[in-house]
């Protein structure tokens, strides 16, 4: 999501009041398409971020700390050469287009003032950041260089004249009265939805603002222009007059960021009332709004990458275990077939007198099923009848030993699949970096992820920080603890819970351990246990079921076998509560 022209207009206005005439102290390039200018103004050093990344091109002040590469890229070196020590003498937006020009002035070697223009072009995948000599109009360099092989309109190469992007030719809102507004809208795009028409026709209007204008006009967001009459068009114009126009005339914006859960989904310089049921976080300035939004998106993308990596590790190991289990069960089935060899050996011993030396095959009656058909037994003609029977008994003994070993291996493989499934369930419910780090650490400790050697070893005597567990209070006033992964489960069950506390867990499924803390001399009411059971069901792989069996017992009846995997316990003296999964209510 890129800022629209209106948002950029407000950003530039704030920058003009904040850093204009400031001196450039330092230039950094922390990412391939991102520049940070450290500008000293009024006793403070402020950081101006300018990005030309396709999906996040923007310009605003930032408070985010970013790691810089050990060696500055070429474009960063050029900006340092021409901009460090200069003053920011002008910041202007071209009309309401997404182009911002920053003019830097410094005293040249000849004693004359020299101007350099840093042009931020925010145009999706065509976004760029270009340094131009103001005196000659020639390009010094661009963060993205390209020739006519990539663009028919212009080339961005050092030494060539700077050619601006093609104009958008959209109408400026301040220049329109209602009659002009209506005539302009009806001149084209009749088949499109209103919000699309506004974006295509009017300068500076992005999708969020267009949708908000339609919503505040009281119109259906799916309404197409061809079905609009005088009433709808008048309502649309009035909505513009009350929302967008005051901002362009200098009114103070009310910037907000819209969150769906912990994910930032939108932003605007005024409250977005068309987002019903989502959290709206106000910001002091438009610059702060952009800084916080893109920081939240970067964190979200980072968490998504971590989650994808962990999902891959878990899936690959579950696939490996599934294939191993299939082979083990196949080998076990074959070994069980070999158990029949004992019967054949006993039949040979019982009918030695019927077997001629050198026989390759013999047909003998079934010892244990006289009415059953006779059985044909293949023999080794080089062995006696007794030796053939002994050979069959040895094969039987080997099959029996194989089955015993395979039963242990199959049990171990099923336990590993169950364990991996518990981590998978925890990963599905992870929400923050700490959750992902705990899961990564568990996978690393279990040998599924190789340590990169960067994790610092805790010095002797230094305690590991406890897991960040969830804590809730029931309607009856009892504290409820919830562990969302195996580390947290072990911590709340084996460390925090006391004998008289209640322990809950979904029956025969992966999920959270839930502890209800008891109070001296009081019995925990059934309503609190039902609440806790609802949480146990919600934080489990059965969270989308309607009724989930949840086992409940006192903590003193829960134990962890020696050498058991994280999160694994055994319990007794339990009762089962059938609960409806219920998400926790924020306190």
What secondary-structure arrangement, pairings included, does this model have?
Layout: H1 5-18, E1 23-31, E2 34-41, E3 44-51, E4 58-62, H2 74-83, E5 87-93, E6 99-107, E7 113-121, E8 128-133, E9 139-142, H3 178-185, H4 194-201, H5 207-216, H6 230-248, E10 256-260, E11 263-268, E12 279-282, H7 286-338, H8 341-350, E13 361-364, E14 375-378, H9 385-428, H10 433-445, E15 470-473, E16 479-482, H11 486-496, E17 502-506, E18 514-516, H12 526-538, E19 548-554, E20 558-559, E21 570-571, E22 575-579
Helix pairs in contact: 4-5, 5-6, 7-9, 7-10, 8-9
Relative strand content:
15-25%
Estimate the mean pLDDT confidence: 91
User: What is the percent of helical residues?
Assistant: 25-40%
Helix count? 12
Radius of gyration from the alpha-carbon trace, in angstroms? 36 Å
The counted number of beta strands is 22
Q: Give the tally of structural domains.
A: 4
CATH superfamily of the largest domain: ibrinogen binding protein from staphylococcus aureus domain
The major beta sheet can be summarized as: 6 strands, antiparallel
Q: Which stretches of 5+ consecutive residues score pLDDT under 50?
A: 456-460
According to CATH, what is the class of the largest domain? Mainly Beta
Choose one word for the global shape.
elongated
Structural class label: alpha+beta
N-end to C-end Cα span: 32 Å
For the largest beta sheet, what order do the strands appear in spatially?
15-16-18-17-19-22
